[in-house]
Amino acid sequence: MKHRYSRRLILTGLALATPAVILGANRWLPQDLPWDLPDSVLNSGEWLSSRMHRLIGRKALAREYTTQDISPVFRTNGATLPKSPQWAAAASEGFETWRLRIGGRVKSPGQFSLADLKSLPLRRQITRHDCVEGWSAICQWGGVPLSSLLNQVGLQEDARYLVFLCADKFGPWQYYESIDMIDAFHPQTILAYDMNQDPLRIKHGAPCRLRVERQLGYKQAKYIMQINAVATLAGIGDGNGGMWEDLAGYAWYAGI
Ligand SMILES: Nc1nc2c(c(=O)[nH]1)N[C@H]1C(S)=C(S)[C@@H](COP(=O)(O)O)O[C@H]1N2
Ligand SMILES: [Mo]
């Protein structure tokens, strides 16, 4: 599984790098790109996208669309029905017993029910989801800004990243993802519990999933069970910040 890339993935890496090249970022390309293509393409994609975000500002908003732009079909990718007994038990009760745990380097660890999340301010946004495998879809997401939850639990001084632990596994590997605090407090970063104004479907990550709109699809963690604030990503999985980062060398900084 490690470091195997499909042709489509490589092409997507090239496509991601293209806008930066047009804008003249090619001046900054390392002089001696090692032409071990897959690694270098993905790594240069990560390198270029993080630099582009530094230029245009990490606080810039992702484009928002209108209701007319909403895709008729929003396909799924990855898990569509977690096997975790804890998640399945909650699902069988319409998620009434589901609790989102927030812990790690926070001042007051908390547990939130779906009703708790719904009692906090709602944000709706129509955005485009871009999967690294080469498909996109536009829909309206509704949920609670992650910042309002983080303000409730309070971060300790050494909290640098948020790790999202999901209910599903890919083989023996638990799905997890992580983001830094700039993305965590970005106004479009929400825990979405509805999609096109309907409750989020199971296949799309019920009861709630992450929307971090300036990042690629695999960062949009579905089936969130727990969020931990951490000082370092070392020691979590293989230490690369996400299951696909660990297994397939996907870029941790998947900025678009
Ligand atoms: N927990 C979990 N989150 C996940 C995945 C997954 O398999 N498990 N797949 C990711 C990928 S690669 C994509 S493109 C999107 C797909 O979301 P969708 O199934 O709602 O289209 O979810 C992301 N989040
Ligand atoms: Mo994806």
Secondary-structure-based class equals: alpha+beta
Helical element count?
7
Q: What ligands can be seen in this structure?
A: ligand MTE, molybdenum atom
Which value, in Å, is the CA radius of gyration?
18 Å
What is the strand content? Answer: 25-35%
Kindly provide the name of the CATH class of the largest domain: Alpha Beta
Low-confidence stretches: 17-35
- Specify the CATH architecture of the largest domain: Alpha-Beta Complex
Quick one: CATH superfamily of the largest domain? Oxidoreductase, molybdopterin-binding domain
The helix content, as a percent range, equals 25-40%
Terminal residue distance: 25 Å
Biggest beta sheet summary? 5 strands, mixed
What is the approximate shape? globular
How would you characterize this protein structure?
It contains seven helices and ten strands. It is of the alpha+beta class and 256 residues long. A five-stranded mixed sheet has the order 2-1-10-5-6. A hairpin with a 2-residue loop joins strand 7 and strand 8. Helix 1 packs parallel to helix 2. The radius of gyration is 18 Å and the shape is globular. About 7% of the residues have low confidence. The site of molybdenum atom has 6 residues, from loops. The ligand Nc1nc2c(c(=O)[nH]1)N[C@H]1C(S)=C(S)[C@@H](COP(=O)(O)O)O[C@H]1N2 binds next to strand 5.
Quick overview of this protein structure:
This protein is of the alpha+beta class and 256 residues long.
Keywords, separated by commas or semicolons:
single chain, 256 residues, five-stranded antiparallel sheet, 7 helices, 10 strands, globular, binds the ligand Nc1nc2c(c(=O)[nH]1)N[C@H]1C(S)=C(S)[C@@H](COP(=O)(O)O)O[C@H]1N2, binds molybdenum atom
